[in-house]
# Entry
Amino acid sequence: METTLIVIDNDAELARARALVEELWKSDNPADIARLQAQARLIAAFEESKWPRRAPSTAELIRHLMDQHGLTRADMVSILGTPSRVSEVLSGKKGLSMTMVQRLRARFRVPADLLIPPPKPPQRATKRAAA
# Structure
């Protein structure tokens, strides 16, 4: 199967590239396998540029960890403090204290830097109009 790679700049080319991957997938030819790997990388690069991933929020991460460990909001009270604090943290209304970070880190065995949001860039001071 002699096939050229498809450089992807739009959805139509993405569909053609995916069809090519389906065809190449059936082959045992080393050249086709190399083309398959290269085309898959081109697809991944296009998809990443069109639909970039974003880091999950701290609340989303905690909800995911709870789900993975089969925990309820009530189970989180011992880690986050009170039922209302659990609700505030899981809704994203409140951030985590260092004590909470330490408890979450110990309970779920995750690095603390996953639980601490990156610092916000400093805002530029706006110039006030001279009076």
Observations:
- The mean pLDDT is 91.
